[in-house]
Please model this.
Amino acid sequence: MAMITFREALRQAMDEEMARDERVILIGEEVGEYNGAYKVSQGLLEKYGPERVIDTPISEEGFTGIGVGAAIAGLRPIVEWMTFNFSLMAIDQVINNAAKMLYMSGGQFNVPIVFRGPNGPAECLAAQHSQALQSIYAHVPGLKVVAPSTPYDAKGLLKSAIRDDNPVIFLEAELMYSWKGEVPEEEYLIPIGKADIKREGKDVTVITYSKPLKSVMEAVDALSEEGIEVEVVDLRSLRPLDEETIYRSVRKTNRCVIVEEAWPVASFGSYVGWLVSKNTFDYLDAPVELVSMEDVPMPYNHTLELAAQPTTDKIVSAIKKVLYL
Amino acid sequence: MAEKLPMLALSPTMEEGTIISWKKKEGEKVEMGEVICEVETDKAAMEYESPASGVLLKILVPEGKTARVGEPIAILGEEGETLDLETEEQPKVEAQPAEVEGASKSSIEKTPEKAEKAHETTVEEQSKRLKISPLAKKLAEEHGIDVSKIKGSGPGGRIIKRDIEAAISSTTLTPPAGIIKPAIASAETSEIQEIPITQKRKIIAKRLSESKFSAPHYYLRTKVIVDELMKTRRILEEETGMKISFNAFLIKLVAEALKKHPRINASWGEDKILLYKRIDIGLAVAQEDGLITPVVRDCGSKGILKISEELKDLIERARQGRLNPEEYTGATFTISNLGMFDIEEFTAIINPPASAILAVGKIHDEPIVEDGEIHIHLVIRLTLSCDHRVIDGAVGAAFLQDLKRMIEMPLRTLL
Model:
């Protein structure tokens, strides 16, 4: 299998879907002439032309609304936000139009659209440009929310997202774009709504998704040297959520740690924590732990910035806590 | 309102402090920040500054005495406030559980009794509340474990899975934790060889522990002259041309003695005693990996030759491990003979459901004084272990006396 970057996996997914279905278009800032702010859409303008790869002005609400309208009218747009921080400008279009249209039209209008871009902190981007906003989108009925952690998952899930008849929020991360992973040559899809066991273990379940998977795996490797076998559940999709995989794992290990890159208050992870406590209550030997970002605006100072995130050390100590070690 | 001044941690590592001197006397006014006493910590002598203004109502820890961090050392209040000294006399006793709720524990309020009571209730309620993880609770229910007897090893004494698992394993096969520890420290585990427990060993361990722990054993010893028995045996062997084992004689004679003492041929049945009409005598036989007790049935109505023949067959098959369960269970009396190992006498553990076991030592020559003269006789020593729930001392002794007399003169069986 070829080792490719996360960025390349996303590009391949869009390329294959654009080749497969001419209703698929890409719209956003710098997606064409500049080949994407993070080079995810490299070569697509050249291949599919300016009618299908559309550069827009800096006007998130405008081009997001154009995308929603185009989807209602029959196209299958991919809207690229340069980062999810800028999606806040366009959130009214997402929540009030994309997410509601099917429901409010009594099932007449589907909105087959993908909103994608980097989410969460990168490095030294300060408080306004380092936000992880998945909990806000996962809060809204009518949206699907997908957050892959590997190039393989990213490609298979983005293709499924583009083919989905509903609006899909597709969360990437700037620091993940250069991560490499094995991706097969032949075509494959990964269904939205299926979690993946990234590591099997019997002692404790760690539930995570997206970028923190890397820190989780570092913690898991360190703990395996102490004889602790951690099971890692990568949610991949927040909405719909694969609850059964979560419960099966927690029933096996009796302990659960949730790791996510988001503020802890009213976060997606705290929702999963409630589900686990409620549905596997009789199987728990320890309270569910949540390792999140600290409840502060992201500091610009790099040392503080790192300390505000769910680090490997924090994950290790949370795992030991539920193991009473 | 009066408040207690606790011993403070005046250095980061301080756990207790000794009052070197009080700078203020009882009844004296104190300003906030004023030094009221000097405290010797683990590091140095430190000044204790008053956290509030008021009157030093009472010194609880006198000079030269020590208080742990958090324990009250004095009471600060307003002029004219009175104290219920009785409740204040023993600061140490109060200090321990009260620390959690220190704020509500001011027993010199206007209504000290009420405050005291309200406080006690909360402490009591808190300690009554059992902390247990949901999983541990479920496991305990499944295994019938009484969680109120378990000490939790989790935070705040929470009972967790491993506590229940420990309780389960200690109630099944292994002895209670702490009784048996390896004799060698764990660092030297290479010096220990672990032998896996076979099913048979488990059963032996379980049955004999049950017997020894639940049946109150007592022991009766006697010395028996066997000259006559050996002579009888020789005569019978000559006459029949067959070998008759010594154990067969013992079984026969025990059966005859049991007929006269039916209370010995019995079992403890918790709310009743079961007397057996049939006499089934087991004989402990050593095997390579344990021991087994083949049973000769209905010994009371069998002749010595029949018993000897059956015994030979049973012992042979016992050594080969080919006995059927019904051939080694349900003895109403047991004999254990270690004479072949030169054991003079020993005590045996009762083999349930029987209520007595006879331990037989080796046949040997012994000088015995009879009518003022020393004679050499062939002798065995018998030790009878009895379950006192079924067999009282005099009843067991009478049986053993009759048995002794029958062995010494087998003719007495005719009586």
